Amino acid sequence: MATQTTASCTGSTLLQPLSEMINLPLDQVNFVACQLFALLMAFWFRIYLHPSKTSPFIRHVVATLLGFYVGLFCFGWYSLHFLLQSGLSYSVMVFSGLEHMHKYCFIVTLGYLILCQITRVYVFDYGMYSADFTGPMMVITQKITSLVFEIHDGLTKREGQLTPSQKYLAISRMPSLLEYLSYNCNFMGILAGPTCSYNDYMAFIEGTCYQPRHLENANGKENGRHQQIEPSPKNAVISKLCTCAISLAIYLSLCKVLPVEDTIDDDFVSSTPFHLQVVYLYLAMLALRPKYYFVWTLADAINNAAGFGFSGYNKDGSPRWDMISNVRIPGIELATSYKMFIDNWNIQTALWLKRVCYERCPINPTAATFLLSAMWHGVYPGYYLTFFTGISMTMAARAIRHNIRPLFLVSDSYKRIYDVITWAGTQVAISYTVVPFVLLAVGPSLKFYRSWYFCLHLVCVLVVLALPVKSRCQQAKEEQDSLQDNQKEHKRTDNNCNQKDKAT
Asked: Which residue windows are transmembrane per the record (predicted)?
């Protein structure tokens, strides 16, 4: 098996004997080996190239060179695409005007990614669904597009035109080429991310990420009551590595026992009652998720080991290392709404979509965000089926939450019943939505939906037509009114307290 898949590996063949020994594709073995190497380098980077011992220039150079080495080992000369994509985008940033820089750069960066995805899928190997060179390019695309919007916000807009998060993320000067390459291609995030803001990355390189002012801006909370010393990421890294080990063991144990492809097997569909098909679909998707938990949690641990990702302190004074975390497993497995699941899954990508699309698109931002997400993920038709299904699911979930949920908030027992029902509904809806994402092709995906008679598609349409949904403008107005009411209430309370103080 390993020898058959080796031909699609474009990186080093040094670990070929190990690949054959454990019977895994060489590209996947290279990926995990490079991440473990990056983990060791992260500890070394934090200890021996600490900001107190060396300059930001040296830290940028070392992080970038190690990143290029990891990319070259994993993907061979295909890693030159990382440089080409970054170089083209930087040229657009430098030579185009500030007014339209973000638009041109967005088109060039995303267009180059899609071009590479088309050639990889339809020219070289349609069925290759493992480590490939377009994976890192997806993360680089997120970083470049985020960067150009933040530069545009910082250099062309007044503070009054920006939201609080945009003010914090806004960049007031053009980054140098070294800073730009270090941000895009550093060894900590070149293979699996996660995406981070440019300001947070620069604070990490310069050693200012532990300052109270930075943390207050990042978290919206003041951390000054704790002693401002550099916390150790040791406990966080150990905890995340344990999560990685458990996730990998679960995935390797269950992935072949519960294949998703069985959901479209004719014998399975004809001989299995529908309610058992529903249960099997949930279990098959449950068995797939640990693969993503492993990749994202390991990437998070690598960044933490280098000293990046500190986000403040908990109430008990323990440090938090979740600034760039990409997944919250309890929030996913216990999600009681479609939105809650999405908010805890691939968190940094969701933030990227929100910042560059949802908050800036004037027309139908929900549909535009799902479309951008599908284009970013790749050119397999299954991706588009998944995200177009996700649009109807999201609209139906909003309508149900707005109209049905208040009826169950009259007591704790009713709310618990509502939570159980919505948990089951969310897990089934998510599993139903992402089947094409796993099957990739149109034929198998439509075969699955036909076996379910497109039932959830029809339910979503009926729910959206039958139940009213608040527009984003109405939601924003209600939030504004609520905020104003809270401010008035605080003023009233302050006045009452002042009067009591005077009387006393």
From this structure: 29-49, 61-84, 104-123, 292-313, 382-400, 420-439, 451-469
Distances in Å between the Cα of 75 and the Cα atoms of 12, 46, 491 are: 7, 26, 60
94: tokens are 């430098």
- Predicted local confidence at residue 161, as pLDDT: 87
Active-site residue, 377 included? yes
| CA proximity to 192, closest of 294, 40, 65 | 294
pTM to 2 decimals? 0.86
From 102, 377, 457, 496, active-site residue: 377
Q: Alpha-carbon distance 409 to 232, whole Å?
A: 43
Residue 219 in this model has a pLDDT that exceeds 50? no
- Which residues are CB-contacts of 338 (< 8 A; sequence separation ≥ 6)? 393, 394, 397, 426, 429, 430
Q: What is the pLDDT of residues 43-52, one digit of tens each?
A: 999 999 999 9
What integer pLDDT is reported at residue 125 of this predicted model? Answer: 63
**Helix, strand, coil % in the chain, rounded to nearest 5:** 75, 0, 25
In whole angstroms, give the CA distance from residue 189 to residue 230.
22
Instruction: Give dist(CA 13, CA 73) in Å, integer.
Output: 9
Both tokens of 61, joined, read 């150079």
467-476's contacts with Cβ under 8 Å and 24+ in sequence apart are 467/399, 467/400, 467/402, 467/403, 467/404, 468/399, 468/402, 468/403, 469/395, 469/398, 469/399, 469/402, 470/398, 470/402, 472/365
pLDDT tens, residue by residue, 111-145:
999 999 998 888 766 455 455 889 999 999 999 99
Range in 58-67, 95-104, 116-125, 197-206 the model is least confident about: 116-125
Query: H helices within 357-440, ranges in order?
Result: 365-377, 381-403, 412-439
pLDDT of residue 316: 86
Average pLDDT over the chain, rounded to an integer: 86
- For 22, the token pair is 């454990």
**346: annotated active-site residue:** yes
CA–CA separation, 221 and 337 (whole Å)? 27
